[in-house]
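User: quick one, fold this
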Amino acid sequence: LGRLPRALSGGQRQRVAIGRAVVREPGVFLFDEPLSNLDAQLRVEMRREIARIHQRARTTSVYVTHDQTEAMTLADRIVVMKDGVVQQVGAPLALYDTPENLFVAGFLGSPAMNFLRGQIAGGVAQLHGLRVPLLRGGDAGRDVVLGVRPQDLSIVDVPVRGDASMRARVEVRELWGSEAVLHVATEAGMLVRRTDAHGAAREGE
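Assistant:
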């Protein structure tokens, strides 16, 4: 209270701006990346505070962000845009579970979805040594893209029977607390696996 706006940091100015908007009790809130200047911990705290404000005020809010975590945690309905064009509209889980195109699939989820490119042949998708059965038939020779969430990949020490496996080498191992993110090199390119940190494969394995 003892300082003028010009004496505040960028993050403090953003929080003051949110407070000024709330006390006016407007009919609609327009938040344009309100947390962009905050550090990681304060961003989490402010996400919770904005969610509480929304629940209490029950006022329509339009929230613009490039952060998919903010979109997933705060929104009742998400509009994903690219180059000014709407890609998909829907509830957060609906967009996450059934993305309509590669942009939406790659935007939602952390880490981002893995993409494997290949072709249809004999009722299966052949993707750099992987043979994935198709639920619906497709035109032979047609190019396809298989999207796999990082938590849906499995890494094993010994090759398993079946065609949906390939050799991989762990290049980078990131610890996220109780979870680890493994960046593995395969003949199909780099893939990302999200797994439990305890017992996760290490670099070079």
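User: anything notable?
Assistant: The radius of gyration is 22 Å.
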